[in-house]
């Protein structure tokens, strides 16, 4: 249990919030410990102050202080992510990347402003706008934060809008493997099955030729499949090892509606983590919208924390 000397430190608190089928239900809260009294404690969380009665606490502990990644860390992870999700058309504007994939996904059709564009910032944004118009696409720029804050300020002045905030989360592979004992038979294949592609198409709104390039044009990759006893595909995921072999990138983690809440998402993630560990990788990363609370809760249980975030910025429509 926490003590007075823990006040002012980051802590995680697991609390009991109810009972279902005679089993307690838990939720976790992370924040700075503000106060402990004889009856409760108060945390300063990302969503504001949270008071937790002591009799609801299952366990609580201090966690290491959050380390903000430096610019080099953010750039290295963004390049690993680009390698894991390779747009078929890529160009360079100095150190910036320009990517096009028939409009399939924001990641595949956005500029990535890392490094020096070899020209003034406003001229660089002008060049990005021309490039995307020439490729028949609405200009998009992914702005990793806080690295691309100056770019974001210039886009604000131009009236660019922003899609919901995306979190880039990371976790040690060992933590994932330890957290999820294998309970389902997960098949890892070098290529996706037709059923796998059908589920992915349903989630992403179709699969043009550029999408198939993105999905398969990586040297080290596996497609996870979980079938039921009747041969019906219940869960999928895609894993790639990139970033000089250090990173497992997890994407397209999907469970059909009738099989959700059965732990299958954890099973496909853990199976890919074991494969990546055997391939020499040490850490995993994924990208998830901040507003996707269910997914974020799952990833938190597996040891994922936010490395950095980004906004996908959209140019005003003509």
TrEMBL record:
GO molecular function terms attached to this record: acyltransferase activity, transferring groups other than amino-acyl groups
Domain of life: Bacteria
Protein keywords: Transferase
PROSITE patterns: GNAT (PS51186)
Record has Acetylation as a keyword: no
Alphabetized InterPro entries for the sequence: Acyl_CoA_acyltransferase, GNAT_dom, Rv0428c-like_C
SUPFAM superfamilies listed in its UniProt record: Acyl-CoA N-acyltransferases (Nat)
Residue ranges occupied by any N-acetyltransferase domain in the UniProt entry: 186-318
Protein name: N-acetyltransferase
Species for this entry: Phytohabitans rumicis
């Amino acid at each position: 249990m926490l003590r007075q000397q823990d006040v002012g430190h980051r802590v995680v608190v697991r609390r009991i919030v109810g009972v279902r089928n005679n089993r307690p239900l838990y939720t976790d809260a992370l924040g700075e410990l503000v106060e402990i009294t004889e009856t409760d404690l108060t945390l300063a969380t990302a969503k504001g102050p949270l008071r937790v009665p002591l009799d609801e606490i299952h366990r609580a502990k201090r966690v290491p202080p959050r380390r903000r990644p430096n610019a080099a860390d953010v750039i290295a992870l963004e390049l690993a992510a680009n390698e894991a999700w390779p747009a078929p058309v890529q160009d360079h504007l100095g150190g910036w990347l320009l990517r096009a994939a028939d409009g399939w996904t924001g990641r595949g059709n956005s500029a990535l402003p890392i490094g020096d564009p070899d020209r003034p910032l406003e001229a660089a944004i002008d060049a990005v706008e021309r490039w995307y118009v020439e490729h028949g696409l609405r200009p998009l720029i992914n702005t990793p934060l806080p690295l691309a804050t100056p770019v974001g300020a210039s886009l604000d002045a131009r009236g660019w809008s922003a899609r919901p905030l995306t979190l880039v989360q990371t976790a040690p592979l060992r933590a994932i493997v330890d957290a999820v004992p294998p309970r389902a038979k997960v098949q890892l294949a070098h290529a996706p099955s037709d059923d796998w592609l059908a589920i992915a198409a349903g989630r992403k709104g179709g699969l043009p030729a550029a999408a198939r390039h993105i999905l398969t044009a990586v040297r080290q990759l596996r497609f996870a499949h979980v079938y039921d006893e009747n041969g019906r595909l219940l869960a999928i995921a895609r894993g790639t090892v990139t970033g000089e072999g250090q990173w497992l990138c997890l994407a397209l983690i999907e469970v059909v509606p009738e099989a959700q809440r059965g732990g299958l998402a954890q099973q496909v993630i853990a199976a890919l983590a074991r494969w990546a560990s055997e391939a020499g990788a040490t850490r995993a990363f994924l990208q998830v919208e901040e507003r996707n609370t269910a997914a974020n809760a799952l990833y938190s249980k597996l040891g994922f924390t936010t490395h950095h975030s980004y906004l996908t910025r959209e140019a005003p429509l003509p």
